[in-house]
């Protein structure tokens, strides 16, 4: 999991808009790479956090993924020290999530948690930094483990790679991922023909 935050002076927000910054999912990998370098030159500061599968699993099994994301968002906000922080809220309960996140902040911040917050150029810029970093991490994995596809659960290539390698490279898979559980738990059960 990769999360990113950017801090920018209000008067420079127009510069992000002029670049054509938008939700990273609406841009091609090449467009994101080009924008990445331009974004980091415009913003005052930025921070990117990469969370490994084992840390995600630990959090999911204890408190849930939303709590882990709140912790990571608070680390970004605490490091960047913005006056206003706009967060793309992963929870269906925006109010409760906002309160949970506020408890983790070390300085007074005008916190705005919203769904689909990529409509704000600053959030879109952060999403581009996160997506490019994630794509680069996947490319590094391919060098070590072979072609694992995009790493997303809906990707047939990723599913096939998981099916063939779930027990060979357990360190790269989220054990809390339902697709991983299907293979690992399915292999532990004996079929009728084995009795």
Beta-strand residue percentage: 5-15%
**Strand order in the largest sheet:** 1-2
- What is the CA-CA span between the terminal residues? 41 Å
Name of the CATH class of the largest domain: Alpha Beta
The radius of gyration over CA amounts to 19 Å
Shape: globular
The ordered string of helix (H) and strand (E) elements is EHHEHHEHEHHH
Mind telling me the CATH superfamily name of the largest domain? Ribonuclease H-like superfamily/Ribonuclease H
Main pleated sheet: 2 strands, antiparallel
In CATH, the topology of the largest domain is named Nucleotidyltransferase, domain 5
- Give the total of domains: 2
Strand count: 4
Average residue pLDDT: 91
CATH arch. level architecture of the largest domain: 2-Layer Sandwich
- Uncertain spans, ≥5 residues at pLDDT below 50? 188-195
Q: From the helix content, strand content and strand pairing, which structural class follows?
A: mainly alpha
Count of helical segments? 8
Which properties best describe this structure?
195 residues, mainly alpha, Nucleotidyltransferase, domain 5, Arc Repressor Mutant, subunit A, two-stranded antiparallel sheet, two-stranded parallel ribbon, 4 strands, globular, disordered C terminus
State the gist of this model.
This protein has two domains: 2-144, Ribonuclease H-like superfamily/Ribonuclease H (Nucleotidyltransferase, domain 5), CATH 3.30.420.10; 146-188, Ribonuclease hii. Domain 2 (Arc Repressor Mutant, subunit A). The protein contains eight helices and four strands. The chain has helices spanning 13-19, 29-42, 53-62, 65-80, 94-102, 121-145, 156-165, 178-188; strands at residues 2-7, 45-50, 84-88, 110-114.
